Automatic annotation (TrEMBL):
Residues annotated as domain Acyl-CoA dehydrogenase/oxidase N-terminal: 5-67
Alphabetical list of PANTHER family matching this protein: ACYL-COA DEHYDROGENASE, ISOVALERYL-COA DEHYDROGENASE, MITOCHONDRIAL-RELATED
InterPro entries per record: AcylCoA_DH/ox_N, AcylCoA_DH/ox_N_sf, AcylCoA_DH/oxidase_NM_dom_sf
UniProt name for this protein: Acyl-CoA dehydrogenase family protein
Length: 70
């Protein structure tokens, strides 16, 4: 049984896609340099990943934190 709402599921799938397609190609570089390339940080900002749990009233997305048990 999954505790994710449709909105949570969409966000989860978007994040998975971002990590697989944008971050994973740079994984070795990130590990070696111990830093995240600026273009990945900017893309994460564009996707709203820095404001996932921040309430909308404060400029975030306002999603709750849940676990997927399914």
């Amino acid at each position: 049984m999954s505790l994710l709402t449709d909105e949570n599921l969409q966000m989860k799938l978007m994040i998975r896609s971002f990590v697989e397609n944008e971050v994973e190609p740079y994984a070795q570089q990130i590990e070696e340099e111990d830093r995240i390339p600026e273009h990945l940080i900017e893309k994460a900002k564009e996707l709203g990943l820095f404001g996932i749990s921040i309430p909308e009233a404060y400029g975030g997305i306002g999603l709750n934190t849940v676990s997927d048990t399914g």
